[in-house]
UniProtKB/TrEMBL annotation:
The chain crosses the membrane at residues 15-37, 49-68, 74-90, 97-117. This is GGDEF domain-containing protein. It comes from the Bacteria. It comes from Nitrospina watsonii. The lineage of its organism: Bacteria, Pseudomonadati, Nitrospinota/Tectimicrobiota group, Nitrospinota, Nitrospinia. Keywords: Membrane, Transmembrane, Transmembrane helix.
Length: 118
């Protein structure tokens, strides 16, 4: 199915789930930045983790829907592997490095929205 209008784009189920994933990741980045002071870290950590799990679940839903509609390519699997490996492992390093790697993940999701759905 060729997407020709903006209405067709927002009606595409793959784009809807990917857009939801982008919004969840953006919310998680905002929560992660807001918990940078040491006194807030313990209170917000659990919420930050739950939103990450929601991100992975939403990304998995996108993988399933996109596979049913048009099939997944290597870039989509690379972004999914990035979210499953690079972001959790970077959390053990430096907080600032973790924020940068998570922001790169957000950029990869936006790139995936433009390349895989369109």
């Amino acid at each position: 199915m060729q997407i020709q209008t903006l209405g067709d784009l927002f009606a595409h189920p793959g784009f809807q789930t990917l857009f939801l994933t982008i919004l969840i990741v953006f919310a998680n980045v905002i929560i992660g930045v807001s918990m940078l002071p040491e006194d807030r870290r313990k209170r917000w950590y659990r919420l930050h983790r739950y939103i990450y799990v929601a991100t992975v679940a939403s990304l998995g839903l996108f993988l399933y829907i996109n596979h049913q509609l048009q099939g997944n390519d290597a870039f989509v699997y690379f972004v999914a592997a990035y979210f499953l490996t690079a972001i959790p492992f970077s959390r053990r390093m430096n907080v600032t490095l973790h924020a940068v790697i998570a922001s790169v993940g957000l950029v990869l999701l936006i790139g995936m929205a433009t390349l895989s759905v369109l």
